[in-house]
């Protein structure tokens, strides 16, 4: 190659590099632990049509409130929450949408309870009046803190559960999980454990848990869709007041048919 041609090739390479510029910043996302795995999967599919797009998920999980605070402070580009926004949060943040819901369940790794629980008997478990599985093994509750959405969902299942859940938290020696992922792992590895989680998170993490029917109804996406099983955990997606282009693109993708199909495949039910 002559010196002239080599020089021209070098100029072309430099020009191409200048046009390409630095790689785009990753999308910073975070929030409830139960949304982390499915959001990662959805972004992986989104990135197939958006070369160069990257995702950075805050770990350990920030929780719904923590994710929304980080979004308001511009430390995140997108948050996902298992609860609705408060009035103050709606005023401070940008667009938000309910992405999906999934069955809110009581699960165990090895506990046996024929037919599951009625709400009355489940309240007996949390109040400490029913303490053993059918085989006589002790029931070991995995609890969440009082301000966690799972505690709120449990307490809202019935008036009796509303009284029993705080009673369980007040008993000495109880096991508390700090986020959804830790709760799932504690239920998995603790003999005789019983605790709240959700069907989508179990699906995304490989299954391996026994779900308990409540009032005779086994939790499933079909039962959730029909209304036969009424207890659900929602997943909201929230943008800041001034979202980045990448955040807007991903937010739009999440409401499209490709995302809906992926959600359904993993036991998340998009809104109609």
Structural overview:
It is a single chain. The chain is an alpha/beta fold. Strands 1, 2, 3, 4, 5, 6, 7, 8 and 9 form a nine-stranded mixed sheet that branches. 44% of the residues lie in helices and 18% in strands. The chain has two domains: 27-101 and 233-265, Periplasmic binding protein-like II (D-Maltodextrin-Binding Protein, domain 2, 3-Layer(aba) Sandwich); 102-226, 3-Layer(aba) Sandwich (D-Maltodextrin-Binding Protein, domain 2). Mean pLDDT is 92; it is low at 6-18. Strand 1, helix 2 and strand 2 (55-57) form a beta-alpha-beta unit.
The tally of strands reads: 9
Q: Look at the structure and give the CATH class of the largest domain.
A: Alpha Beta
CA radius of gyration: 23 Å
Helix/strand-derived category reads alpha/beta
Count of folded domains? 2
Attribute tags:
18% strand, 272 residues, D-Maltodextrin-Binding Protein, domain 2, alpha/beta, elongated
Q: Short description, anyone?
A:
The chain has helices spanning 3-20, 33-48, 63-72, 87-92, 119-127, 149-155, 159-170, 180-189, 199-204, 221-226, 245-254, 257-265, and strands spanning 27-31, 55-57, 78-81, 96-108, 140-144, 175-177, 193-198, 210-211, 232-238. With 272 residues, the protein is of the alpha/beta class.
């Amino acid at each position: 190659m002559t010196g002239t041609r080599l020089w021209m090739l070098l100029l072309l390479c430099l020009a191409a590099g200048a046009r390409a510029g630095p790689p785009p910043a990753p999308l910073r996302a975070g929030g409830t632990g139960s949304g982390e795995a499915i959001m990662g999967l959805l972004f992986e599919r989104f990135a197939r049509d958006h070369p160069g797009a990257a995702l950075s998920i805050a770990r350990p999980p920030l929780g719904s409130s923590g994710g929304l605070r980080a979004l308001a402070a511009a430390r995140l580009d997108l948050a996902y929450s298992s609860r609705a926004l408060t009035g103050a949060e709606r005023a401070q943040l940008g667009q938000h949408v309910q992405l999906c819901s999934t069955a809110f369940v009581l699960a165990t790794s090895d506990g046996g309870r024929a037919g599951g629980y009625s709400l009355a008997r489940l309240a007996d478990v949390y109040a400490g009046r029913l303490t053993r599985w059918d085989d006589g093994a002790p029931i070991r509750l995995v609890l969440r803190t009082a301000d966690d959405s799972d505690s709120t969902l449990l307490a809202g299942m019935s008036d009796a559960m509303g009284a029993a859940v705080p009673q369980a938290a007040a008993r000495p020696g109880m096991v508390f999980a700090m986020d959804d992922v830790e709760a799932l792992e504690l239920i998995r590895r603790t003999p005789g454990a019983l605790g709240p989680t959700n069907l989508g998170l179990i699906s995304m993490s490989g299954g391996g848990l026994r779900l308990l029917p409540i009032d005779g109804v086994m939790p499933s996406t079909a039962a959730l869709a029909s209304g036969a099983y009424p207890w659900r955990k929602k997943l909201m997606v929230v943008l800041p007041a001034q979202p980045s282009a990448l955040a807007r693109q991903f937010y739009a993708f999440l409401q499209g048919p490709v995302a809906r199909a992926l959600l359904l495949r993993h036991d998340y039910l998009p809104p109609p």
